[in-house]
Amino acid sequence: MWRYGVSVLKPNNCYFQCKRNFFSFSKSNLKKSPINNSSNSLTIMTTITESDVGILCSISNLPGFRGILKQRYSDFIVNEVDNEGNVVHLTSLDAPPEAFEEGETKTSDQLNKSYASEIEKFRSLACETDVDSLETLINKITSGSEEDISPIVLSPDSDKSHRTAMHNFFKENLRFLVTDTVDGPDSSSKCIRVRLNSGNNKRGGNSNKRKRGDKPYDSRGSSHWPEHLGKFLRFHLFKENKDTQEALGLIGKMLGIQTRSFGFAGTKDKRSVSTQRVTVFKQHASRLAALNERLIGIKVGDFCYVKEDLLLGQLLGNRFTITLRGVVADSEDTIKASAESLGRHGFINYFGLQRFGSGSVPTHHIGATLLRGEWKAAASIILDPREGDILFYICYFILFWQSVFNMLDYLKAREYYKETGDIDGTLRQLPRHLVAERAMLQCLKKCPGNYLQALKAIPRTLRMMYVHSYQSYLWNHAASVRVQKYGSNEVALGDLVYIKGDDAEKTEVVPSEHEDDSFEDADDCSQLDEISGKDLPLKKNNLVKVITAADISAGNYTIEDAVLPMPGSRIIYPTNEVADVYHDMAKKDGISLTESVHSVKEFSITSMTGSYRRVFQKPIDFQWELLSYTDGNIALSETDLDKIAKTKPVNLVKEEHPTNGTESEEPFDHPDELESFDDDKKFSIDNDEVEVSREVDPLQVHSAPDSNSQEPQKALKLAFTLPASCYATMAIRELLKTSTSVAFHKTLN
Question: Active site residue: 269, 302, 495, 669, which one?
Answer without folding.
Answer: 269
